[in-house]
Amino acid sequence: MRGLTVTTITAVAGIAAALVSDAVATGPGDVTGIVVVAVAVLAQFPILRVIGIGPDDLSTKDVLYVAFMTFALWFVSWGILLTAGV
């Protein structure tokens, strides 16, 4: 259940970051998009703590997983939004 919760939160955060990046960034070369995904990664740890998954429960591998999955979903989703012209 813990793994499913973490994966769901990272996926939703990545897609939400892509939508926000599409709204605030002027294009793919704008650094604002990277800032948005960095904030999305950092914002997940307090959310996980509230849910009951504290920093003691997360290993280095788990933190890297959260960062990578959020980035990957953001990258794919924002890429689709940029090419679709939405």
Describe what you observe in this structure.
Helix content is 79%, strand content 0%. By secondary structure, the chain is an all-alpha fold. It has one domain. α2 (32-51) crosses α3 (60-84). The chain crosses the membrane at residues 33-51, 63-84. Pfam families: EMC6_arch. Keywords: Membrane, Transmembrane, Transmembrane helix.
> What gyration radius follows from the Cα positions, in whole Å?
13 Å
The low-confidence parts are: none
Number of strands: 0
Percent in strands: under 5%
> Quaternary state, please?
single chain
Number of domains as seen in the coordinates: 1
Largest sheet: none
Number of helical regions:
3
Q: Compute the average pLDDT.
A: 91
Terminal CA distance reads 35 Å
Structural class: mainly alpha
What overall geometry do the principal axes of the alpha carbons give? Answer: elongated
- The H-and-E topology, N to C, reads as HHH
Helix percentage: over 70%
Based on the model shown, name its key terms.
86 residues, mainly alpha, 3 helices, elongated
Indicate the topology.
Elements: H1 2-24, H2 32-51, H3 60-84
Helix pairs in contact: 1-2, 1-3, 2-3
